[in-house]
Amino acid sequence: MSTTAHAGTGPRPTATGRPTIVLVGHGMVGQRFLEALAERGLTATHRVVVLCEEPRPAYDRVQLTSYFSGRTPEELSMTDMAFVAEHGIELHVGDPAESVDRAARRVTARSGLVVGYDTLVLATGSFPFVPPVPGKDAEGCFVYRTIEDLLAIEEYAKARATTGAVVGGGLLGLEAAGALQGLGLATHIVEFAPRLMPVQVDEGGGAALLRTIENMGLTVHTGTGTQEVVTGDDGAVTGMRLSDGSTVATDLVVFSAGVRPRDQLARACGLTVGERGGISVDEQCRTVSDPRVFAIGECALASDGRVYGLVAPGYEMAQTAAATIAAEGTALTGTTGTTDTADTADITGTTTAASFTGADLSTKLKLLGVDVASFGDAHGTTADCLDVVYADSRSGTYKKLVIGPGGELLGGILVGDAEAYGTLRAFTGSVPPVAPEQLVLPAGAGAPVQLGPSALPDEAIVCSCHNVTKGAIRGAVTEHSCTTVPEVKKCTKAGTGCGSCVKVLGQLVTSELEAAGVEVDKGLCGCFPQTREELYEIVLALRVSSYRQLLDRYGREGARGGDGCEVCKPTVGSIIASLAPAIGAENHVLAGEQAALQDTNDHFLANLQRNGSYSVVPRIPGGEITPEKLIVIGEVARDFGLYTKITGGQRIDMFGARVEQLPLIWTRLVDAGFESGHAYGKSLRTVKSCVGRTWCRYGVQDSVRMAIDLELRYRGLRSPHKLKSAVSGCARECAEAQSKDFGVIATANGWNLYVGGNGGATPRHADLLAQDLSDAELVRLIDRFLMFYIRTADRLERTSTWLERLPGGLDHVRDVVVDDSLGICGELESLMAAHVAAYRDEWAATIDDPEKLSRFVSFVNAPDTPDPVVGFVPERDQIKPDLPLLTIGTRPLEGSGLR
Amino acid sequence: MTLAPETTTTLTLMVRLRPAGPDGTTGTTGTDGSDGSDGSDGTTGTDGEWFAVCDPSVLVPGRGVAALLPDGRQVAVFMDRAGRLYAIDNRDPFSGAAVLSRGLTGSHRGRPFVASPLLKQRFDLASGRCLDDESVRVTTYEVRVG
């Protein structure tokens, strides 16, 4: 069953002459240990052999439950086989160690494989504790630990269960309960302690958690134990009898009542284990019985007398053991190793002492969708400590801080809202700069305080998974020239564990960069050192109509000749499309090389929706449409079974089109006189209008006609971001023109032009650019304004943010486009004139061109077979995406490979 | 399912796929360990046969196509600027939608990737690893023209 992964690089030289490290167990901690060995160069100086019991290499056990939301076992994998191969690690999966002969320094695996060792590292993990109740082994009883357990639960649940019960309401129990509920079972949780998650939260937190979980439809039984698993005639589970005398009918039982260290192998070879289990180790994670044997992770009884069941302490032990082996390897083996790499400048500062004396048990989890966090002295065991508690049972929020006699923050519990976890944990041990109650009150209550991470002391731990201090993160920016979060993550490892500190990390990096006055690279992306504006100038001045040409000539050195990236491709594609008539490029986003530059929406001329289907929006200029055209839209939507909805831009959106249906739908629409609405593009969307003077008794101008004129003039204009517009027929502003990129409001004397408005997440009222314009003046000014925006804005920068960013703001824009201070207005106008003259409908051009049409297939080898993941279910007499289809993975374990 | 018939006269050059090993480069097993190889020489047998999906001329540099395998799996096949072919699972693990073939490709530090068209997470085309979330990886396939 074992597989040796030398693939790719070929076998390394045999072990002769190299000391051997044998790792027993390849879980998360084992994998971390291997990485730590590699980081210290030990994989080069040592032969490393791994014996792994499970049939697959290390995977993310913490995320096990995500299997039920569609992650495949493969996606849970933490093992990069390239890493294993690169470092010549001999990984034997499905071949557990059976015995250790310490005198002969040999491990024997189940397959009969015998490996001699110089150093043995036990990372055997733990096993689920199953309380010794009658019936515990009946059919339908499971534990929750491995992917195989999950597969067995899933199979049983699907075949014969409608109800499930989890024994244990701790962290893993709630995970398991979430999984059962996800399988559609009516789910019970039985917890012996008087509250859920007794280790992490106190009574108040448990109550908040209970309410929230009961609201989700789970049944919770606390303060009662399981007395017996009841079985039916066929020997399968039918229920449980609880110690309070009650019974629970259930088809399936999952025991998740804690874990115990797997120390059998250690016991059998005479290593000292603790009274309640766990292989006794010292501060270096070396077993107290044998200097050649280490134990790390959940199987180890640490020097502080505890067995740690969390992954972060296990990682720390892995690092400690690796550092110790690196530092002392020569002493034991007598060979020369690269021992000096062990404790060299590691700016995380975690390994200088290379000892594990105990760990912070702070955790932040999302269980059943509820945030639960506890940190420091969460239960207030310190003498003379005081509590600050905020509880809101309506929202299921509970927050408690434990404060020491000197005002220092000692720890706390957060349930329902753990937003402040990162900051609070970092302040643990120090006196926060504001009153503690302000740290737990919700925004809007009392005096909300946004306590930024810049207030943290340098020694505050920001990433507790890797023990990275704020000082180390600052150092990464100031001394190691990191300018981005990914760089800081790589440099310090901060944020690479549970990830809960990444937000704080981002804030710290930004504030450090600002403080240091570091010149931030303004280049568009990793491929181009120029800004979007600079690229626009290059494309226009040199008439560059090819992305490749631009990249190879003007890209960053390392990017030339490469494939570009998802940032610069659409950006350059947009610039070329904006300027196509002026620079002589082909005037269609799907023409030639341009097709490969477009984001998926532009590539399929439709809007991608969450399940992989598309929506279709024909242009309805000004929101005016004839009954005949309305009927066509209705017929098309009906014939293709599409969901229809009126948009905010006075159009009709048809959802649920499969990619292969798009040309058929558009053939019908084009035949009826419709054209693309460009709802998919970073381009003009819609010009809304009110009904105006024609019908309205207040109207002073014909707003509908103006809206139609403007929409037809600027349709198809590619720009840095989408463009929205509206025309109101009087000052009552029914078309909401002041929330648009360019909005027009009628006056008795003509038109007022407003620019830079926005709705959405950051609303901004538009600024008045010019007043009382004639029709021609209005159009000319908008021509100039839009072309100036297209020329100078950053990628994905709406007119509102562009206007705020430009030095001089609105006044500068007015100088340029009204007073022609730069002398470019003639050019801006002629560029727009070229666009208007060259416009043609993208969809009409596409359905006439077999080459462009060839992309509209579901599968290249089965063009008419619909994507099986795209399905729909009824809702309110229409359709909606069948989302469960998206979570049904095509799991490798089920497949029998290719035929 | 209407799979396009594979030409039996194999003179036509076709793009062919088969599942890659866990390191994304060879056909070694290892994720399930069920192929009973002794592992002593560091090489193991390959999984599955080559399956022809399309004529190479339909591939456009920088863009993908989706292919359907007989077992229902969907594969996104890409060609980079240098003409190298890559194939990964078409399912976007973050959304579940089968859309990776419709993403934009690029190269990052010399390694090719595709960005999901839905929420833009990037996946290394050779290893299947998500560049934006270390815990996520998509299946890779070996691909050849022949």
How far apart, in Å, are the first and last alpha carbons of chain B?
25 Å
| Level-1 CATH class name of chain B | Mainly Beta
Strand portion of chain A, in percent?
15-25%
Q: How many strands, which pairing sense, and closed or not: the largest β-sheet of chain B?
A: 6 strands, antiparallel
Beta content of chain B: 25-35%
Specify the overall morphology of chain B: globular
Total number of distinct structural domains of chain B:
1
Notes on the protein architecture:
The complex is a heterodimer of chains A (899) and B (146). With 899 residues, chain A is α/β, with parallel strands linked by helices. Chain A folds into 7 domains: 20-126 and 261-341, FAD/NAD(P)-binding domain (3-Layer(bba) Sandwich); 130-257, 3-Layer(bba) Sandwich (FAD/NAD(P)-binding domain); 371-451, Enolase-like, domain 1; 458-518, BFD-like [2Fe-2S]-binding domain (Arc Repressor Mutant, subunit A), CATH 1.10.10.1100; 532-598, no CATH class; 601-681 and 862-899, Alpha-Beta Plaits (2-Layer Sandwich); 682-835, Sulfite Reductase Hemoprotein, domain 1 (2-Layer Sandwich). In chain A, 31% of the residues lie in helices and 19% in strands. Chain A has 28 helices and 38 strands. The two termini of chain A are 24 Å apart. Chain B has 146 residues and is mostly beta strands. Chain B is 0% helix and 30% strand. Chain B contains no helices and 9 strands. The two termini of chain B are 25 Å apart. Mean pLDDT of chain B is 77; it is low at 1-11 and 24-46. The interface between A and B is large, with 86 and 83 residues.
Task: Please specify the SSE layout and strand pairing.
The complex is a heterodimer of chains A (899) and B (146).
Chain A: E1 20-24, H1 28-39, H2 42-45, E2 47-52, H3 73-76, H4 81-86, E3 90-93, E4 97-101, E5 106-109, E6 114-116, E7 119-122, E8 126-128, E9 141-143, H5 147-160, E10 163-167, H6 171-182, E11 186-191, H7 203-215, E12 219-222, E13 226-231, E14 237-242, E15 247-249, E16 252-255, E17 259-261, H8 264-268, E18 279-280, E19 293-295, E20 300-301, H9 311-333, E21 363-367, E22 370-376, E23 386-392, E24 397-403, E25 409-415, H10 421-427, H11 436-440, E26 461-463, E27 468-469, H12 470-478, H13 485-492, H14 502-516, H15 532-542, H16 547-554, H17 568-583, H18 600-604, E28 607-608, E29 614-616, H19 627-640, E30 643-646, E31 652-657, H20 662-671, E32 684-689, H21 703-714, E33 723-728, E34 742-747, E35 750-755, E36 767-773, H22 775-792, H23 799-805, H24 809-817, H25 825-838, H26 842-847, H27 850-853, E37 872-875, E38 878-881, H28 884-887
Parallel strand pairs in A: 1-2, 1-7, 2-3, 7-19, 9-16, 10-11, 10-16, 11-12, 18-20, 32-33, 33-34
Antiparallel strand pairs in A: 4-5, 5-6, 8-17, 13-14, 14-15, 21-22, 22-25, 23-24, 24-25, 26-27, 28-29, 29-31, 30-31, 34-35, 35-36, 37-38
Helix pairs in contact in A: 1-9, 12-14, 15-17, 17-25, 22-25
Chain B: E1 15-19, E2 51-54, E3 64-68, E4 74-79, E5 85-89, E6 104-108, E7 111-115, E8 122-124, E9 140-145
